[in-house]
Amino acid sequence: xxxxTYQKDPLLTALLSLFCPGAGQIYNGExxxxxxxxxxxxxxxxxxxxxxxxxxxxxxxINDGKLPNLGNATHVFLFVLIPLLTVxxxxxxxxxxxxxxxxx
Length: 104
What we know:
Elements: H1 10-19, H2 23-27, H3 31-43, H4 47-64, H5 74-96
């Protein structure tokens, strides 16, 4: 039985990382690296640009056969990124004054 491997879309991985740092790495099957980029983005902000570049070039290397295709780590989106993004959005809403958590 032959295993089906899917090509990675370098543009999609770069766009994923543009909108959510680390999402392109998770799409490439590197959830550890994706979570690392996401967590360091909130601390430093600078790794975000590197995340976009890395996601693009890793997907190109996967397509060229230079790196193994590890599949997609979609379970990480469900259990890690979605809760983190929810907390981040709520936190930003508090900072912007959209939501008041201390109604006295």
